[in-house]
Write a structure and sequence with these properties.
Number of strands: 0
Mean pLDDT: 83
InterPro entries: DUF4244
Number of helices: 3
Strand content: under 5%
Low-confidence stretches: none
Pfam families: DUF4244
Shape: elongated
Protein name: DUF4244 domain-containing protein
Organism: Streptomyces mauvecolor
């Protein structure tokens, strides 16, 4: 009888140990970015914004947008 109980206790102990390990991994996991990743991400976003600003404010794009808006406002209903 004690062998059966010991086997069940051993199995339960292993399950509890695995459950605790999974819980610790989930709590301790790398779910977010570190400070250096934030810095690189912010720098990349600023560089993209600067390039986009230069493209949108260039002469060709400004004239194309102006023509597009002018044509849209001149539509006869």
């Amino acid at each position: 009888m004690s062998a059966v109980i010991n086997r069940h206790v051993g199995a339960m102990t292993r399950r509890m140990r695995l459950w605790g390990l999974a819980l610790r991994r989930r709590v301790r996991g790398d779910a977010g970015m570190t400070t250096s990743e934030y810095a690189v991400g912010t720098l990349a976003a600023c560089a993209f914004a600067a390039i986009l600003y230069k493209v949108v404010t260039s002469g060709g794009v400004v004239s194309a947008l102006t023509q597009l808006i002018t044509r849209a406002l001149d539509v006869q209903f």
